[in-house]
Structure formats: C-alpha cells, structure tokens
Specification:
- 46% of the residues lie in helices and 11% in strands.
- Strands 6-8-9-10-7-11 form a six-stranded mixed β-sheet, with helices on both faces. Strands 1-4-3-2-5 form a five-stranded mixed β-sheet, with helices on one face. A three-stranded antiparallel β-sheet has the order 13-12-14.
- α23 packs across α24.
- The chain is elongated.
- The protein folds into five domains: 23-45 and 156-187, no CATH class; 52-150, 2-Layer Sandwich (Signal recognition particle alu RNA binding heterodimer, srp9/1); 194-378, Rossmann fold (3-Layer(aba) Sandwich), CATH 3.40.50; 383-452, Helicase, Ruva Protein, domain 3 (Orthogonal Bundle); 463-650, Peptidase M41 (Methane Monooxygenase Hydroxylase, Chain G, domain 1, Up-down Bundle).
- By secondary structure, it is an alpha/beta fold.
- The structure holds adenosine-5'-triphosphate and zinc ion.
- Adenosine-5'-triphosphate (ATP) is lined by residues 11, 13, 15, 212-215, 250, 252-258, 309, 355, 357, 389, 392, 417-418, 421.
C-alpha cells in the first residue's frame, strides 16, 4: 500500500438542498392502493346496470320478440336497452356447455358467468346483416344517435366513490403522521415544486462571501451579479440587458451551492433551491409543472435567486439521454426551463444559477445567449485557498497553540472545501473524545489519517506477517528517500487501516499541476518497492501488492496513452482525457481509435516501463539493505514512525527534488 495521493473524499456534508422524501418511491404504492380498492369495490358492489354482452343472434331474437326498446351503434358494436331484463347465458346454455364436456380450457372460457340486465351490448357479425334496419324499424326499436344512458355518471361515481374515500383517508392519515408540511406535500401537490426557500433576511441562515474562501476568482465573477440584484435599474437604465443565467462548473464539494447562497445573502434576496434530479418524475409532465411553479414562486418574490443543482441530470444533450424511460420527461422539463428563462425579461430581477460537474454533456440550447451564457469555473482550492477555507471552518472551534493551518493546507492537496470542512469536524470530534479543551495539531493529523486511509482496524497478525508487512512498507519508504524526485515520506505505519495492512504516507511538497516524466518514474518505482522488498528479503511473493500493481499500471498506461512518454508510440492520443471535474476517463465511446497492432504495442510499452521500474526498485533496495533492515526494526518496535524517526533510523537524507535545468551540449 502506498498512500502518496490522498483519495478525494466523497462530499460528506449534508446538502443544503436535500432533506425531502423522494416521492418517486411512493408511486407504486399509490397505484397499488387504487387498484386494490377498485377491485374490492367492484366485487362488493357489482354494478346493477352494467350491460350484459349477448351474441348477435340473441339480440335479433329479442328484437323480434319486441323486447328491444332502443339501440345505439358505434362501429360494429351495438348497445341498447331491453324492455324486460334478459339473462345470458341462460341456464340451459350453461347446462348444455357442461354436457358437451369442454375439450379444452379455451372452450370452457367461451361462456362468461350469467348476468342479468336491461342493458346489453353485442357485436355485429363481420358479414353485414342487410335487412337489419328495416327489421328494427318494424319491431319499433328506437335507433338512437346518442349513447344509451346506463345510469351514466352516477353509476361511475358510485363505483369510484368508496375508493376515493379510502384514498382520501390514507392521505389524511399520511399527512397527520408526516406532520406539518412534511412528506410528499400531499398527494395533490405533485406538480408543485418542492423548492426550498431560504430567506436571507434573518441573520441565522444568511450566508455571505465571508463564509466562502479559497475560490476568489469565482467569487469575483459573481460580485457583479450581487450588484445587479441590489440595484437592477442601474444596469438596465441604458437599455442593457441583465444576466439571466450563470452556470457554476466544478468538482463536487468545491462550494458551488455555497457560492449561490452567498450571492443571495450578499444581495439580501430570497434563494430558491432545487436539485434537478427532483424535477424528474415517473409521470410525464410533472417535472415541467414543477419548473413552472418554481419560477412562479420566485417571480412573486423578485428580486430572487433560483438555484438548480446538478443540472446535468436534466440538461443532458437531447439524444444523449439514455433510452430507458424518463426520456421525454427530461426533454419536457428542460424545455420548460428554457421557456421560463426566455420568458422573463431580465428586468424582473431573477437570476438563475445552476451547478454541474459535467459541463460537456449539457445541451447546447442551455448555453445559448440569454440562458446560461455565463460560466464560472469553481476550481479545487490551492494551498493558500485551503488554508483560507480551513480558517473559515475553524472560526467556531477552539484551537490549540500548536495548530498550523498552513501545514494542514500543505498536507491536503486535492481536498475540496467540503473535504476540509469534514476534516475540521473530524478533528473536533476526536479532540472531544479525548476530553481535550482545544483541538490540537495531533487531532488534525489523526483525523486526516483517518479520512485519507480509513479508521484503524484491530487485526491479530502473526509475528511473521508483521515482519513481512514491515519490509513491504519499508521498501516503499526507502525508495521514497533514495529515488530523486520522489515525494517526501511523512509517516510509515504497520497498523492495519481500512483495506490496508500497512501504510507509507508520502505527499508532495507543493501542489503539482505538471508532472515531469522523471517524477512519474520515481512514483512507479516507489509503488513497486513493497513487492520488491519482499522479493529481495524473502525471495517469495504475496498478494499484498495488488493495490500497488494496480496504481503503477494505471500510471504507466497514462504515460504511454495520454502523455506521449513512449518513444515507440510517440505523441499520439490513445486514451481520452479525464473528465476534469469528476476524475476518471471520459471514454471514447465504444470503438477504440487504433489498430490491434497499436493495442499490442501499448501493452508492450506499459510492461516495459513497469519491468524497468521493478528492476530498478530491487537494485536500489539491495544497495540499501542496511537502511531497509533498520527501518523495519524501528517499525516493529513502535508500529508507526514519523519523518524524523525515518531519517534517523535509516541514516539517509531526504530524496533530492527534481530541478528544471536546461540541457547542455
Ligand atoms: N470555498 C469554500 N469555502 C468555505 N467552505 C466551503 C467551500 N467550499 C465548500 N465549503 C463547505 O463545504 C460544504 C459543501 O459545499 P457545497 O455543497 O457548496 O459544494 P458543491 O460544489 O455545491 O457540491 P456538489 O457538487 O456536491 O453539490 C459547504 O456547505 C461549505 O461548508
Ligand atoms: Zn504496498
């Protein structure tokens, strides 16, 4: 295990937009209740006036007897009324059918259960009965132009009334249980937006730019929006049109929601927030209705901010949306947003802020002028930014005198604002558990370790296993000292944590934005150092290197396919770039844009890099065997060793950093 890059933590903080029940999961229950009720009621109260379906011959026979008073025909179906109620099938017929002993199940099903009614319906035979009209007139059958009333509306209502009553009762019960304003907003509030409204007037939940740190560029771009909301006339006086939509683009947890709230807070206008995922419902049209309602609410309290989180959930380019359900629903919802945004003039003082971390999948229509034509990128904070964000979050936390926010900022490359908030929280909890009066530096370091590496895990290990793990981790650590350009080693531990049996914690001295090839090789060599040490010392292999192998392979593959670092393949893009805001490959979408030979060459080059680094790792560890052994001894003694202890135990200086020097000659 080699912990050189802290993995990004999922945003662990509660989203300001969240908190309502997802109504979607109630729909199947709702439908089930309606269905059960319907069946129950129609069984308990059979409709007295439901028509009996009779064969055409029976109908003619009855008409001949003068028992038919009126008919109404629709297509090949005739509906009508008998003078005296008729039962069909008759008892003789049922008996006959029984005697004939049905040969198949199908035969038996031909006869429906007997019914009696004055209303009937029948099907005209495919061959046209020419004399029918004359025949009916002769038998004084009234041929009606309108459907024969069968108790009509009342009948239907009678059938549904008990069901409605029962449903009404359920709703009432549900509302009582859910309490005020809770739950699904009532069965009848489906089309209403469940936007959360924050009134920025009361100081308690007012967020200002004071609460936002470390993302100054994004903040600066939004100052203008605040100005506009404060005094719209100033901008529109000369006929200029105000901004309508701003798209906030950035990785999860970078503070997009926070920024939007701060804009509202600074301007002192209400803030309506909704997650795009909440717009999308099973039933087509509901999303659009919610959008309409959201904009209506905002318009009523303009000037106001509307914030739509995760807009990519509905704003995906049309045609790109999955074929599975919800397709046209998304389209309609998106269309409604566009319509609403086109509808308001910009004078009304409503500004729509939307957040996304996948800007490249958005529908073009969203980005056209007059819609989300402004884009503000919210980057992960740099070291200074991280220190500032920590500063915001420690405001209410009593700090020990030894805490250095600078140092913590340095130790947390890749952390988002939300991650940093989480770090402060974890440290405070830890200090409280340790019954301290202030949060000290050690609390922060331990919290960081827990976040990055997972909590400690009690595990009973044999002495042999412990020694092997110590050699594995020391292998990583020694190479972190002797390979030029390797990240400094801060801590080595053989306390099992999370998935790992041991940990070597390395981290770069500064934030890196551009990686030299030599640095990448140094990292691969370090990653392979665990296995290399086991081989050098024991001559055998274990499964303990799985994670290392995975990381090293990934890095080597990127060198070959994305960064043009293989002479055999040259500067050809052979893998897509990562989604900048989410990490992970964006995908070429199916077909690989290269041949089988190239694929084979890529594999060969990746193998070459790994094998070279592996050999180098083994060579270096053999050369520094004494240092390796003494670090292992120190580890077995104390389980965790700090940077100074490592340098002391090994007698080695920290690895020289890579310098950029022009080539000579
Ligand atoms: N730049 C920052 N300054 C101060 N606090 C921050 C910053 N960025 C994030 N935070 C903290 O993290 C919390 C979560 O951030 P927020 O929800 O705004 O991120 P987001 O970018 O909207 O995330 P997501 O994409 O997951 O919705 C905020 O409430 C805030 O406390
Ligand atoms: Zn390892």
């Amino acid at each position: 295990m080699n912990g050189s890059t802290p993995p990004r933590q999922p945003n662990g903080t509660a989203k300001p937009g969240g908190g309502t029940l997802p109504p979607r999961k109630y729909w199947p229950w709702f439908l089930l209740v309606v269905l059960v009720n319907y069946l129950l009621v129609s069984y308990l109260f059979p409709q007295p006036n439901a028509p009996v379906t009779v064969p055409y011959t029976v109908f003619r026979e009855e008409a001949g007897k003068g028992n038919v008073t009126a008919i109404y025909s629709r297509g090949t179906t005739i509906e009508g009324r008998f003078r005296a109620a008729v039962t069909w099938p008759t008892q003789e017929e049922v008996k006959q059918a029984g005697q004939q002993a049905p040969r198949t199940a199908l035969d038996r099903r031909l006869l429906p259960p007997p019914r009696t009614s004055v209303y009937f319906s029948t099907e005209l035979p495919a061959f046209f009965d020419r004399g029918l009209e004359d025949f009916l007139i002769r038998n004084k059958v009234e041929i009606s132009a309108v459907p024969i009333q069968q108790g009509g509306l009342w009948n239907t209502l009678l059938l549904f009334a008990p069901a409605l009553l029962i449903i009404g009762f359920y709703v009432w019960m549900y509302r009582r249980m859910a309490g005020q304003g809770g739950g699904m907003g009532g069965m009848f509030g489906i089309g209403r937006s469940k936007a959360k409204r924050y009134d920025t007037a009361d100081a308690a939940n007012r967020v200002t730019f004071n609460d936002v740190a470390g993302i100054d560029e994004a903040e600066a771009e939004l100052v203008e929006i605040v100005d506009f909301l404060k005094a719209p006339d100033k901008y529109t006086r000369l006929g200029g049109s105000a901004p309508k939509g701003v798209l906030l683009i950035g990785s999860p947890g970078t503070g997009k929601t926070l920024l939007a709230k701060a804009v509202a807070g600074e301007a002192g206008v209400p803030f309506f927030s909704m997650s795009a995922a909440e717009f999308v419902e099973m039933i087509v049209g509901v999303g659009a209705a919610r959008v309409r309602d959201l904009f209506k609410q905002a318009r009523e309290s303009a000037p106001a901010i509307i914030f739509i989180d995760e807009i990519d959930a509905i704003g995906r380019a049309r045609g790109q949306m999955g074929a599975i359900g919800g397709h046209s629903e998304q389209e309609q919802t998106l269309q409604q947003i566009l319509t609403e945004m086109d509808g308001f003039s910009g004078r009304e003082g409503i500004i729509v802020l939307a957040a996304t971390n996948a800007p490249d999948v958005l529908d073009r229509a969203l980005l056209r002028p007059g819609r989300f034509d402004r884009r503000v990128v919210v980057n992960l904070p740099d070291k200074t930014g991280r220190a500032a964000i920590l500063g915001v979050h420690v405001r209410k936390v009593p700090l020990g005198p030894d805490v250095s926010l600078e140092e913590l900022a340095q130790a947390t490359p890749g952390f988002s604002g939300a991650d940093l908030k989480n770090l402060v929280n974890e440290a405070a909890l830890l200090a409280a558990r340790r019954s301290e009066n202030a949060v000290g530096h050690k609390d922060f370091l331990d919290a960081l370790e827990k976040i990055v590496l997972g909590p400690e895990r009690p595990l009973l290990l044999s002495a042999d296993d412990r020694e092997r793990i110590a050699y594995h981790e020391s292998g990583h650590a020694i190479l972190g000292l002797v390979v030029a350009g390797a990240d400094p080693v801060h801590r080595v531990s053989i306390v099992p944590r999370g998935q790992a049996l041991g940990v070597t914690y390395q981290r770069p001295q500064t934030d890196r934005y551009n990686y030299p090839e030599a640095y990448l090789r140094a990292r691969i060599i370090g990653m392979l150092g665990g296995r290399a040490a086991e081989e050098v010392v024991y001559g055998t292999k274990t499964t303990g290197a799985e994670n290392d192998i995975e990381q090293a392979t990934q890095l080597a593959r990127n060198m070959v396919t994305r960064w043009g670092m293989s002479d055999a393949l040259g500067m050809v893009q052979l893998a897509p770039r990562e989604n900048q805001f989410l990490g992970g490959p964006a995908g070429f979408g199916g077909e690989k844009p290269f041949s089988e030979q190239t694929a084979a060459l890529i594999d060969a080059e990746v193998q070459r890099i790994i094998n070279d680094c592996h050999e180098e790792a083994k060579r270096l560890l053999r050369a520094h065997r004494a240092a390796l052994d003494s670090l292992v001894a120190a580890l077995l003694r104390t389980e965790t060793v700090s940077e100074e202890e490592i340098l002391q135990a090994t007698g080695l200086p920290p690895a020289p950093q890579l310098e950029a020097r022009p080539l000579r000659g």
